[in-house]
Amino acid sequence: MPHPIQTLKELFKLDAAQIESVERMFVERNFSKGDIFDGQHSMQAYVFYLKRGAARVFYTANGREHTVQFAFDDEYLDTRSATTEVTIMFMEDSEVIYMPVSEMHDFFSERESIHRQDAILFMNVALIHRIKNLEERIFYTQHASAVERYRWVINRYPRLLECATITQVASFLGLTKETLYRIRSGRYK
User: Fold this and answer.
1) How large is the average pLDDT for residues 1-21?
2) Which of 25, 79, 122, 123 has a CA-to-CA distance to 9 between 20 and 30 Å?
3) pLDDT digits (tens, 9 = 90+) for 111-165
4) Alpha helices (runs of H) in the chain, residue ranges in sequence order
5) How many C-beta atoms surround the C-beta of residue 18 within 10 A?
6) pLDDT-derived band of residue 15, with 50, 70 and 90 as boundaries?
7) What's the CA gap between 179 and 184, in Å, rounded?
8) In the β-sheet with 87-90, what is the strand arrangement from edge to edge?
9) 8 Å CB contact between 47 and 99
10) By C-alpha distance, which of 65, 68, 23, 31 is closest to 50?
């Protein structure tokens, strides 16, 4: 995924001052490996872009963590759940840009040169990215064997096993960790 500023430049003909105004709205923050950003921080008010690093988005139900997303360099994080509060755990030192949804909406509304549909497209670029990833994940969880799911996730996220636990990967794939251990050892039939 291109950097949000690059996406803006491709969609709109913004001058340098307008680009600077947008950049001032963005909050850049560094997180260390193991840092947690949870639902207590009103994440729904922002769109999160992982500039560099690795993160896992999950929720907890009945005392168990359920992995919703893994994200690596240049990906958007899915934090806009309508049903439960999610948590972001950083699996590597990471640089994150968060964009305030309401301020971005106001910025686009004030610019007559920006068509409403284009502004909506930019505001939903993270959602579009997430839908694409969810479609792929749903396909594999519904139509692929456990071994095929494992191969898919390793190909999709080459650094995953360096920073996520087997339990987290199994949760993401809808498998038990025991099944994943058998697949990895070659004993799964």
Assistant:
1) 75
2) 79
3) 766 666 666 767 677 778 778 888 999 999 899 999 999 999 999 999 999 999 9
4) 4-11, 16-25, 101-109, 116-123, 125-143, 146-156, 160-163, 166-173, 177-185
5) 16
6) confident
7) 9
8) 36-37, 87-90, 54-61, 64-72
9) yes
10) 31
C-alpha–C-alpha distance, residues 158 and 163, integer Å: 10
Q: Report DSSP letters for 74-92, one per residue.
A: SEEE----SSS--EEEESS
Are 37 and 79 spatial neighbours (Cβ–Cβ below 8 Å)? no
- What's the whole-number average pLDDT of the chain? 85
**Predicted pLDDT of residue 82:** 57
SS3 136: helix
Residue position matching structure tokens 């960790």: 177
Both tokens of 188, joined, read: 């799964």
- Which CATH homologous superfamily contains domain 4-142? Jelly Rolls (2.60.120.10)
Question: Do 43 and 100 form a contact (C-beta atoms < 8 A)?
Answer: no
* Length of the chain as a residue count: 189
- State how far the Cα of 107 lies from the Cα of 165, in Å rounded to an integer: 41
Written as six digits, the tokens of 166 are 């087997």
Mean pLDDT of 46-64: 90
Question: Any idea which residue has 């799964």 for tokens?
Answer: 188
Residue extents of the structural domains in the chain:
4-142, 144-189
